[in-house]
């Protein structure tokens, strides 16, 4: 990810926002879309392209749980653990997924295919318990068998060219 690529991506947006800080989040999401997470080099490029310090850009990135500061799997499975999902079984759903993936809680599978995480509300409380794969649609209500089928389907399909996080 180069500074020039980020600047080119941001060019059409520059006149749309009164506050230049508004460009940081789209730039971070764009950078993450290339490798699935935000290595220091990508954050440095975003800082240079937006005119803010790398420390400031990193503080923005660390605030959002869908911006990944560590390497992730090809797919990120985010299980909602807020109250409405917890009351409807998200702890059990998370435990089943972790067991099925061979994980001991949150983490990335040995083959690098999946990262499993507990996240706060994903906006599908009416469909609890739910999860979201990358930044796709929220899926729910889910039972263990549904999650198993989802994982099997993801394993079987060819990986997309770009990370949609």
Structure report:
The structure is a single chain. The chain is α+β, with helices and mostly antiparallel strands and 165 residues long. The protein is 43% helix and 12% strand. The chain is built from seven helices and five strands; from the N terminus they run ααααβααββββα. Strands 2-3-1-4-5 form a five-stranded mixed β-sheet, with helices on one face. A hairpin with a 5-residue loop joins strand 2 and strand 3. Helix 1 crosses helix 3. The radius of gyration is 17 Å and the shape is elongated. It starts with a helix and ends in a 9-residue tail after the last helix. 30% of the residues are buried.
Mean of residue pLDDT values: 93
* Rg: 17 Å
Number of helices: 7
Strand content: 5-15%
Biggest pleated sheet: 5 strands, mixed
Q: Please give the share of residues in helix.
A: 40-55%
* Low-confidence regions: none
How does the overall form come out from the CA principal axes? elongated
> Total strand count, please?
5
Counting helices, strands and paired strands, the structural category is alpha+beta
> Which series of helices and strands comes N to C?
HHHHEHHEEEEH
Strand order of the largest sheet: 2-3-1-4-5
Measured between the Cα atoms of the first and last residue, the distance is 16 Å
Q: What's the gist of this structure?
A:
This protein has 165 residues and is an alpha+beta fold.
List keywords for this structure.
single chain; 165 residues; alpha+beta; five-stranded mixed sheet; elongated
How is this fold's topology laid out?
Layout (H helix, E strand, L loop, with lengths): L2 H8 L13 H12 L4 H11 L3 H10 L11 E6 L2 H5 L2 H12 L5 E2 L5 E6 L11 E3 L4 E2 L4 H13 L9
Parallel strand pairs: 1-3
Antiparallel strand pairs: 1-4, 2-3, 4-5
Helix pairs in contact: 1-3, 2-3, 3-4
């Amino acid at each position: 990810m180069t500074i020039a690529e980020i600047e080119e991506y941001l060019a059409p947006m520059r006149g749309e926002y009164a506050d230049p800080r508004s460009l940081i989040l789209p730039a971070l999401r764009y950078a993450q879309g290339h490798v699935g997470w935000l290595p220091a080099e990508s954050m440095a490029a975003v800082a240079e392209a937006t005119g803010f310090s790398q420390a400031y850009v990193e503080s923005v990135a660390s605030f959002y749980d869908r911006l990944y500061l560590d390497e992730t799997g090809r797919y990120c499975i985010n299980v909602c653990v807020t109250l409405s999902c917890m009351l409807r079984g998200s702890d059990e759903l998370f435990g089943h997924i972790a067991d099925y993936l061979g994980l001991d809680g949150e983490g990335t599978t040995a083959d690098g295919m999946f990262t499993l995480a507990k996240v706060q509300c994903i906006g599908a409380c009416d469909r609890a318990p739910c999860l979201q794969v990358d930044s796709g649609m929220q899926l729910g209500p889910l039972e263990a068998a549904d999650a198993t089928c989802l994982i099997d389907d993801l394993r079987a399909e060819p990986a997309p060219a770009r990370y949609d996080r």
